[in-house]
């Protein structure tokens, strides 16, 4: 089996991401005594990114792209985008939990600083990989390498963060309007994931209707749904007329972590972020010309 190793900016970006993510989770594990929740999540982000990048490098090293069960025009950049978002989240969560106001021993604190620095470097490396791999004007490539494809990744990631905030404790069960917002998050997340899976598995031709029209119609539907959720969620959480609380409760300032009011605010902000992402997605989807290679 021939080994193919061609030096390129893309390869160097992947190698940098591989090394940085490896150092981040290795040092964090060596530090020990990390909180089970946030610590395990950050280690998962780095380890998952490292393992996926190593797999991609090995597949391209041995020239196995044609034997892979996924579209190699779509999978690497999709993974790189998810890895960038995961490492970015770890770069924010890790220092907030283990550096801010930490009374840990100096050696453990130093380990946490090193992990945070290399997590930030891994994020930059993955962003560089996405930037190098994304489609250029007039270039024939996979859908996931285009702006709408990358936006789908961001939309699903933001939805996952919303699910984390909204489900522990459950924040949507005291009013039907909030249950509607939860339905919006679930429907849009599922459809976006279906699109990503169809592209990665190269099954878009199996649809009984043109894929381009489906993308445009779905983007329009998602914009309308998220616009309604962007309006409804704050009203029924922060408007006293609808049982909400406008001011941040006093007990929120005296406890560690985020209280329910903080989580409701975070969901409101993330809902607005996803609305903007879907709006940009709609603009791109209506302009994108699909060319079959």
How would you describe what is shown here?
69% of the residues lie in helices and 0% in strands. It is mainly alpha-helical and 293 residues long. It has two domains: 1-145, no CATH class; 147-292, no CATH class. The longest helix has 28 residues, at 106-133. The two termini are 28 Å apart. 37% of the residues are buried. InterPro entries: Marvel, MYADM-like.
Write the SSE topology.
Layout: H1 9-31, H2 36-61, H3 75-98, H4 106-133, H5 147-167, H6 176-200, H7 211-238, H8 260-287
Helix pairs in contact: 1-2, 1-4, 2-3, 3-4, 3-5, 5-6, 5-8, 6-7, 7-8
Give a quick set of tags describing it.
2 domains, mainly alpha
Strand content: under 5%
Principal-axis shape? flat
Overall pLDDT score = 86
**Category by helix and strand content:** mainly alpha
Tally of discrete structural domains: 2
Over the alpha carbons, how many angstroms does the gyration radius reach? Answer: 21 Å
Order of helices and strands: HHHHHHHH
Helix content: 55-70%
Q: In this structure, how is the largest beta sheet organized?
A: none
Number of helices: 8
Poorly predicted spans:
289-293
Number of strands: 0
